[in-house]
């Protein structure tokens, strides 16, 4: 029996070798090519719908937040909204809104108009201070199909959000004399620097640039730079450099592709982010968020200068792209990466095709037409 089994075994081995040397059927190749790799392994309960606080805001805010709601519903995103009416002319943010954000930990917000003068505090600043949203992140990048003066722009501006001139610490000393305080602390400077380097490290960014005016404000901006340098030494794989804010603005408009991640104090960051947004395609397409240790608010990345434009509101031609991309950031923050990818891909496809664009992007489309196009482009 053993002698008869040996030739049979040899034949089976020859057949197996011949089969392995021949190419696999086309059907097998096709299925192998289309098979997806494991990109996200959820923890138990990750797929449960998450509550998010929604503040439609003023002017165009309800239009663009309404656009986000429509797209979220169309792709059955696991997010539902608790909506609160907040307006920029209020004396303070209602306590129930703060409580909702503390509970949900995430908020999506339209623009809030800040009255000029009159002693009315900015509700945007109030929210950042109350929730300690110390990091503002704005991503300014070229969108395919949208012509701009510069190419290869992909800048992330990370701005300290709770102190400095922009925090509104000012008072009238005597009639006709106003004192505005710029407070810089080592604690806040270190944590914003660490946030910037952590972001660069986790997102495969190569360089962090600190923006400052330490040649004049030697103590305040000097402390900010000292903190950035200390943190930079802990990330030897990331290139670190520094630039004075006035030279930074000139370099941004002449050669923006040299910048990668930028970390800034409060006021400089607002100016740099808006400049970078204008270079990359306009404030209407740049996403952003304000992030703290426990809470996050996502909104249009650069200043929404058209929030109170009544003509845009009446014509219903507000650009929803920035807030749609910000909501994709929110989905990624909530650990729903596939929904974020679908939304981003659909928005970029609509921009690239160029058929449906609002006036700020060279078109004449309405908010609803852009929304309908994005929904149609969802995978």
TrEMBL record:
Protein's cellular compartments: Mitochondrion
Annotated InterPro entries: Isocitrate_DH_NAD, IsoPropMal-DH-like_dom
GO BP annotations, alphabetical order: isocitrate metabolic process; tricarboxylic acid cycle
Keyword Transcription regulation: no
Region (Disordered): 16-35
Entry GO terms, CC: mitochondrion
Record-given protein name: Isocitrate dehydrogenase [NAD] regulatory subunit 1, mitochondrial isoform X1
Organism of this sequence: Elaeis guineensis var. tenera
Gene designation: LOC105052961
